Structure formats: C-alpha cells, structure tokens
Amino acid sequence: MPQPADLSRQQGSAHPIPSEGPDGGIPSEGRAIEPAIEPASRRDAESAADPAADPDEPAASPPRDGATAGPRRSLIVLLAVSCGLTVANLYYAQPLLSELRHTFGISSVTAGSLVTATQLGYALGLVLLVPLGDVLEKRRLATVLLALTVGALIVSGLAPDFPVLALASLVSGTTLVVTQILVPFAADLAPDETRGRVVGQVMSGLLTGILLSRTFGSLLAGATNWRVVYLTSAVLMTVLTLVLRTALPRRAPAQAAASLTYGALLRSTARMLKVHPALRRRALYQAAMFGAFSVFWTTISFVLTAAPFHYAQWQVGLFALAGAGGALVAPLAGRWADRGLVRPMTAAAFVVAALAFGLAAAGRHHILALGAAAIVLDMAVQTTLVLGQQVVYQLDGRARARLNSAYMATFFLGGAIGSQAGSYAYHAGGWTVAAAFGAALPVLALLLWATERRRA
C-alpha cells in the first residue's frame, strides 16, 4: 500500500510540509523548502495591485537558464575569478599601511582609517546599490559599477594627499559591491540541490582574491611603490569590465520587482531584516566574524614590520599567502550546507576563530604560529560566510539581491568597526590587546548562537 508521501508525489502535490531548521531558513535535513504554488493569475493580480506591499512576495522571476543542469563550469570559473579580482581592491591597503604612514606622515590609527573608509563605502554600496540587482538588468548594472571603480582607482593611484586617497577609497568601496551582484547571480543559475556547492565555488574565488590581494599589493609595492598597486588594478578592472560585458548572459528582473520605485526598493530591503529572523542572526554572526578578520589583518602588518621581525614590504606580502590556504574550505562549507550541517559547523567555526587568536597571542614572536593562526582564522570566517549565504539565499529566491544586501551590509559594518577598533586596540596595548579583542568577537557570536531555539 503506498505511503502518504508516495500518494503526494503521484498526485503532483506542490505543498510539502515545511520543517524549519535551526537557522530559520534551512530544513533539518538540509533540503530547500519549495514555496507552495498558487495560481499565477491570483499572484500576478496581487503583485500588480501593490507591488511594494510585501517584498517577500514579488512576482516569480523568469525561469533560470539550465535550471536542471546548473550553470556551465566556464561561467562559474568566470564569476569566481571576477569576484576575486574585484574584491581584492578592498584589501590592497591593509599590508600597505606602514608605507602609507611614512609617505603621508600620519599615525597608525589614521592609516588604519583608510581600511575603515573602504569598508564603510562597501557597506554603503550594499545598502544603496545591491538591491538594484532585483530591479535592473544585472549585466549592465555590473559593468557600470566596474567602470566607476576604474575611475576611483585611478584617483587613488594619483592622490596628492591622504584625504584624497581616503575619499577615493570610500568611492571605490561603494562601487566594488558588484561582487554582491555576481554571487546572487550564480545562486539564481544553480538548482536547489547544488546551490550551496555552486555558491561555495564562486565564494572560493572571492575569498582567494581577498587573501592574495595582500600578497599582490605588498610584492608590487615593494618592487615599485604603493601608487602602482592602484593603477595596475585599474588596468585589470578595465579588462574585466570588457570581458563581463561580452560573456555574461542577460538577466532581466521580474516584472513586479522592476516596477518598484527606488524608495520602495530600499524600504523592502530593510523589511527583510524585520521579517526574517534567520537573516538577522546570520548577519550578526558574520559581523562578529568579519570584525575579527579585520582586526587581525589590519594590525598584523604593524606586528611584522616591528621588532623582532622588521619585515620589508615584500615579506609582509609573502606572509599574507598563509591566509590563502583558508580559501580551500569554501567549497567544503557549501557541501556542509547542502547536507544540513549549518548549525553545528557554525558553532565549530566560532570556537576555531577564538582559538586562532589565542594561538596568535601566544606565538607573538614566532612567525609559524602567526601563520598558522592566519590560516585557521580565515578558514573559520569563510565557513560561516558560506553557511550564512546558504541560509539567506533560501529565504526568498525572488529577492536574493535584497537579502544579500541586508546580510552583507550588516557584516561589512562589523568589519569596518573591527578595523578601526583593532587599530585603537593595537595603539593602546599592542598585539596582545588587539588579539584579545579579536578573540572576544567570535565568543560573543557563540553566545548568541547558544540562544537559538531548535525546532523539530
């Protein structure tokens, strides 16, 4: 005798019983929850009546290209490389802070504000620009933002003084959110059962770009000067803009979403945080983790250029290669998310991040200990980032740009705070105080994680 589940499948039922997972967005078995299908005529009528009334119920997006097989491997690689090259611009300044301090005659705290300005610009772009991915054609939006980035990088490379450099960095940080147009683009193209893996692969490119940017910036600055770093990146971004303009498929927005005014779009983005508890939690988790990440990488150049190391700029760049090993965990984190291991692996990442700072503090005078701490910390941060994206992207497949905007803006704000607070902590008490502050952030996230209520 067939079981009820079999009868449901035989009768074409589109109403599976949802089982909310511990994060509020992932089922306990790690499978995506499909929304119930309602008559298209009624849904379209409701959307037309008030398209801004409920941002969680916009009209269905157009069918995905290759919804069954998923995106082509070459397109995934292109998206991963594009994200890596683009996001690297956010971090070129971190290993250059000591050189910038001497060039402009500024303090370590003032030099650290350059990283803060870039990350604040990125958070601003996440709020004001990324939601446009739900209402504008994505390829055109991406290429326009990249063109603006090229202009800001040229100004950075030619900056006559520090305020001009900081302002240009703020502008480039704002336009560099093109990466957060491309990552949801990859999620849109992927079928539900492999979305975590595809997003993990694209994120591995993005995170590799974050980590290798420090090495590239340090080595190039050591061979030439810091201005060449920005001007070289401007050339790379020009080439990337032309390639993406040619290779990316066109992705028209859903009709109801496209009808939203800009003000309604921003209000609906803010409402995402109100109506999705899982989004709030994952954003706060990642704000703490990215804050810890920024504390480490903003202050480590001060450690390595001082006693007992006295490293040159190119040696600081080689140290940054240690963190690149952490990018290998991103595809694994995507698979863990697909298998329903979001909650336990999130807690494990918090613990590992706190222990990494303990190792960094204890190994203050040992380069191997600092290198190991960098690898472990980056692996933990990348794990929570990919797990969080898997949770967030399943909340509403028709509003991923707005969900991503709220998620990323929150945690990049945490990164900006971490950069500046880390600089103050290092200035006040050296590496030990900075490491203690960095360790406290994932511990706070773990305490918040412990308040989650598990549901059957």
What does this entry look like structurally?
The chain has 18 helices and no strands. It has 456 residues and is mainly alpha-helical. It is globular, with a radius of gyration of 22 Å.
Keywords:
single chain, 456 residues, mainly alpha, 18 helices, 0% strand, globular, disordered N terminus
Write a concise synopsis of the structure shown.
The protein contains 18 helices and no strands.
Helix content: over 70%
Order of helices and strands: HHHHHHHHHHHHHHHHHH
Shape: globular
Q: What is the rounded distance between the termini?
A: 27 Å
Q: Count of DSSP helices?
A: 18
Radius of gyration: 22 Å
Strand count, sense and barrel status of the largest sheet are:
none
Structural class designation: mainly alpha
How many individual β-strands? 0
Strand content: under 5%
Low-confidence stretches: 1-68
Mean residue pLDDT: 81
Secondary-structure map:
Elements: H1 4-10, H2 40-49, H3 73-87, H4 97-104, H5 108-128, H6 138-157, H7 162-175, H8 179-189, H9 195-223, H10 226-247, H11 255-258, H12 262-275, H13 277-305, H14 313-324, H15 329-338, H16 342-362, H17 367-393, H18 400-449
Helix pairs in contact: 3-8, 3-9, 3-10, 4-5, 5-7, 5-18, 6-7, 6-10, 8-9, 8-18, 9-10, 9-14, 9-15, 9-17, 12-18, 13-17, 13-18, 14-17, 15-17, 16-17, 16-18
